[in-house]
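Help wanted!
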Amino acid sequence: MIASDLKTPLIKGNKNYGQISNELLSNVEKKPARWWFIAMGFGTLMLLYGAWAIYMTFSKGLGTWGINNSIGWGWDIINFVWWIGIGHAGTAFTIFFLVFRQKWASSINRSAEAMTVFAVMCAGLFPVLHLGRPWDVFFIFPYPNTRLLWTNFNSPLFWDVLAITTYLLMSITLWYFGMIPDLAAIRDRARGKVKKALYGFFSLGWNGSMRTYNRYESVLKVLGGLAAPLVISVHSIVALDFAISILPGWYTTILPPYFFVGAIFSGFAMVLTLMILIRKLFNLTDFVTEKHLDNIAHVLKYGSLIIGLAYMTELFVAWYSGFEYEIHTFFKARATGTYSIQFWLMFTFNAVLPQLFWFKKIRKNIVTLFVISIFINLGMWYERYIILISSLSQDFLPSSWATFTPTLVDIGIYVGTFGLFFSGLLLFVRYIPIIAVNENKPIVREERKKTQNT
Amino acid sequence: MKKKHIIGVFDDEAKVVAALKKCKEMHIPIEDVFGPFADHDILKQHTKKSRIPHLAFFFGVMAVVLTFSFIYFVTVIDYPINFGGKPYFSFPPMVVLMYLMTILITGTLSSLVFLGRTQLLPGKQAKIVDPRVLDDHFVMLIEKPDDPEKIKELLRNAGAKEIEERDEE
Amino acid sequence: MQTNFYPPQKLKILAAILIITGVAALVAGFISDPDRTWANILLNNVYFLSISMGGVMFYSIQFITQSSWSALFQRVPLALGAFLPVAAALMLVLYFGLPDIYEWAIPGITETDKLIAHKSPFLNVPFFMGRMVLYFALWIAIWLSLKKFAFKEDRQADFSLYQKSNHYAIVFIFLAVIFFSFAGMDWIMTIDAHWYSTLFGFRTMITSIYYGVAAVVLIVFFLKGQGYFPQMNEAHRHDMARYLFRFSIVWGYLWFVQFLIIWYANIPESTIYYVPRFLGEWQVLFYAEFFLNFAIPFLVLISDDIGRKKWVLIFMSILLMAGLWIMLFIQIMPGSYGQLKFGFTEIGLWLGYAGVFIMLVFYLLSRSAVIPVNHPQLKESIDHHL
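Answered by r_m:
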């Protein structure tokens, strides 16, 4: 948010409402380009790899994974936390728009929400997959049962189930409610009978009534207001999975806010990666302008600052505590020992590289934006790797120290989640307007008023 | 003669606001306004504040009470189990659960109330008053007025693009 | 539109009375119980410094987020920084009382206490004081620049001054986030020298914005009562209420998360911190802290309509001023003085500091325009409506 852009328009090209409808609904109304089918092919291949890996996991058991007695949580939980983190961006954008009134978020929040829905779906697979007896997964639900047992309500693992279910439900609701007026617009413009019927079904009879809009705005405000505390709590509860243990490197009071900031950070990085591609492929550069990308880069810069501070604080307090196991985990295992490569990669990609965004040249260049955003997500993956593997592999008893090597099944499940994520997004960009038409029309009007007044 | 509905089609929301103000002065009840987005000036003129937020607060309080009661019942009365040395009545975990359940219940029930009040249901046939209403035009619908000519005059003065009389559907 | 602030005579007299009370409490305190007085000096230093830092951080955030709603009264949070140089001096004076507050500063403690001996490369008097000097030098330097650009802008409209303020605001946030977190750890966490919490510094830093906003609210309403800011309307009050509401959630979250993790893992080295505070004689204050800082503001401000009312905002802000004191009291006292005592020393010293703070802030407000007359977003701020 450079001061000189106080007057830069959020939507370029001085469009009127009709133009906005035409341009923003074009991805639904036109036939998809060839690259879409190729990408869908790749997505499907990845899904197939994942399906095989899941089949192996369920039929042969967790022995097909790289986990062992010491490192009971491997790629499963690393990827679980990674995907949940990425999912936070959508809700963050919705909150930015609905709660903080940051108008620039409106051209991005629907894609970001789509990203959230699919990311949370990916994350939600892991708690089921990593069970020793996945057929008993229903044990987690507190219903009156013949075992005469309740679940452990004191456990963050249970809170996780509740938090992620709530998060998935709320994200889908916010995402879906936001698109109802747009689906109705497509219904009215649709020529084919099937298309009209389908969009008609999902647009719930929306007819542009202002009375309805009144309640609509009200419920969106309520849901947006709820989404803010929800998004903080979801990743905090995931952090509590680790923080309430006594393991050095896991037991630390900063973990919940640290995870939360990290989630916003990695989510925004993924949004940046995707929006750079989407705006080019779908000709949306008038709506997702350089200013939008610039704003995201600024958020990433500050996120990186806080993550860097958290790393320094953890390292410092580990020494300060005088607790020899804590000192070993941070200074022997992580910073200088077995896991030093991953540690310093994590540090560089998360706390150092995004600081390049202080420089205007780097922020303006699409290639550097894209490359750094990918490195950020890689860095965040390494962060979860460091937290999990280094603490588990070298805990209190040296005789139980072990190392972790991922198997093809581990990798397969991860690739499969990528398949799910990208296939889902590809379906999104084909069947649903990428940018909220009804949210962006008033922005054009606001901007016109502003330029008239000054 | 059967009374007909009058609709006025506008291409600028500011004109709609002006027309609404005029109608309010002359005590003409507007059935509804239709448009491609929620214009705040129109909403201010035409609608009352929704009570959904008040209901949401009530749902939240209810959720807190219900969750607390349920967890207390389960962990203290029904089947107290010693989990890691924690007391049977452990308030900190209850806080987390009450927090999550509040969000879940408030969100779900508010959404259902919204859908119910606005009668938005899957597969419902939309009553479209004019196909351009979701694109770039605004439409005012006045149902069965007593004095159609006066209304048409008013709409014309406010700058309506088209004015039409229509039979009830 | 009245743009220059002239402090009313009554205000000057009030400040004088407060300062005299403070001096009396200080002298009486040192005569009767120096340990207790030193602990209170630390408490008040951190109290008013938090409000200062919080205010200037709020000012910086408005630039970074290009928020226009607050432009109308932006001089107020900037003016809160006026206490920074005095805060520096008062903190440096603590040098003479370090052994009375901090266990690790007692000469010879490293012979008997192995853990403190381990920490002594960091927890030693020269390094501690050196860090203190560094923190203040950095914060004051940037604040002075921000003040300079703001005053210059009042005299002559110049967009480059807004841009300069923007850049320095970013630097200030950088310095505040990193160094105020470390300052929180340095000055408060090390009182309980055998305890640690990685969240502590972050919490001190973030919650200071909460209290900074509360102080801004109080001062803005005072000035409005004197006839300034006539254009402040319901929409501004709405945003103030929203800020306080959201920060109450942040406060509650950070407070709860630290407690939950320590409670759950039940590791004695960590739970010892909460034994006197949650289970011992400080229990009443522990709950008071929770209610004043979180429960009451959250429940009252959850409703937009209630939050927008002037008296609700004022009352909540006053509550928060008390809440900050209780929070710091519980953080500082059990480990330093060790006894729960509330009397003339506590009240008098706080009043004295308040007098100094009021004097400095209002003096700064009178030095230049109280409304940023040439701010690029001033018109937007005045036009701000619901």
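OP: Thanks! One thing I noticed: The mean pLDDT of chain C is 94.
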